[in-house]
Design brief:
Layout (H helix, E strand, L loop, with lengths): L12 H9 L3 H14 L8 E5 L5 H9 L4 E6 L2 H13 L6 E5 L14 E5 L9 H10 L5 E7 L5 H12 L4 H13 L3 H10 L6 E4 L4 E6 L5
Parallel strand pairs: 1-2, 1-4, 2-3, 4-5
Antiparallel strand pairs: 5-7, 6-7
C-alpha cells in the first residue's frame, strides 16, 4: 500500500485535546519498558531530548523512570504544548521538563549532546523524514541512547481499518480518524531502514515491537 502523508502538525485544539485525553496507558507503558531492555548497560541519563513530545506523556514517564534526569521536550504545535504544560504541571515536573516550541530540523536546544534522545510517533508526520535523523545526528554523541518508536504502515486499507477497530473502538471519532490517517502515513520497516542507511545511521537497530509499532534504537558508534 502506498504511503499517504498527513499534516506535519497536530495543531487543531480539538485534535490536541482528544490526543491528550486518549487512553495510551497500555501502549506507552509498554513502550517505555523497552528502553531499559534495549539499553541494559546504560547508566541513568542526566539529560533527555524528547522530539515531537505531543502532550508530554512520554516525557513524564521518562522523568519518573529516571528521577535525576532533565528533559527538553520539543514540539511544533502550540495547542499540543498547551496540553503538555498541563500534563507536566499535574505531575509536578515543571522543574525537570522544559518545553520548546520548535520544528525540525531548525531546533536550537540548550545541550550540545544528550544522554538519551527519544521520540514517539513523530516520524510518520514528517514530510521529510531525514529531518528527524539529521536532528538526532546533531544532538547525539557516541554515548547517546537513541530510542525512536513509530507506527508501521499496514499492507492494506483493510488491515488499517482492523487496527483502528481493535485499538481505538471506544475513542472519539476525531481520534479514530487521526489513528487511521497516521497508519496510512507511516513508513514500512524497509523504508525506515533505507532512511537510516542514507543518513549514515547503519549502527542503529530496527525492531518490530507490536502489530503496529516499530522501534529504532542504538548508539552512533562512529560519532
Amino acid at each position: 500500500m502506498q504511503r499517504l502523508p498527513e499534516p506535519e502538525l497536530m495543531d487543531d485544539p480539538a485534535q490536541a485535546i482528544a490526543y491528550a485525553r486518549a487512553d495510551f496507558e497500555a501502549a506507552h507503558s509498554t513502550l517505555v519498558q523497552h528502553f531499559p531492555r534495549v539499553f541494559a548497560d546504560l547508566e541513568p541519563p542526566n539529560t533527555v531530548l524528547d522530539l515531537g513530545c505531543g502532550p508530554a506523556d512520554i516525557s513524564v514517564r521518562f522523568a519518573h523512570m529516571y528521577p535525576s534526569c532533565r528533559i527538553d521536550a520539543v514540539d511544533g504545535a502550540p495547542c499540543m504544548l498547551q496540553q503538555a504544560q498541563a500534563c507536566i504541571e499535574a505531575a509536578a515536573l515543571q522543574h525537570r521538563i522544559t518545553l520548546h516550541l520548535q520544528r525540525l530540523p531548525d531546533c536550537e536546544l540548550p545541550e550540545k549532546n544528550y544522554g538519551a534522545i527519544v521520540s514517539n510517533s513523530l516520524l510518520h508526520h514528517l514530510h521529510e523524514p531525514r529531518h528527524l535523523w539529521a536532528t538526532i545526528c546533531r544532538y547525539a554523541s557516541s554515548r547517546t541512547a537513541i530510542f525512536i518508536c513509530d507506527l508501521c504502515r499496514p499492507q492494506s486499507i483493510e488491515q488499517a481499518e482492523a487496527l483502528v477497530t481493535r485499538y481505538a473502538a471506544g475513542e472519539p471519532d476525531i481520534l479514530r480518524r487521526d489513528f487511521y490517517n497516521s497508519l496510512l502515513a507511516a513508513f514500512t520497516p524497509d523504508e525506515v531502514r533505507a532512511q537510516l542507511d542514507t543518513a549514515g545511521l547503519r549502527d542503529l537497530r530496527l525492531e518490530a515491537i507490536s502489530d503496529r509499532h516499530l522501534l529504532v534504537y542504538g548508539r552512533l558508534e562512529s560519532a
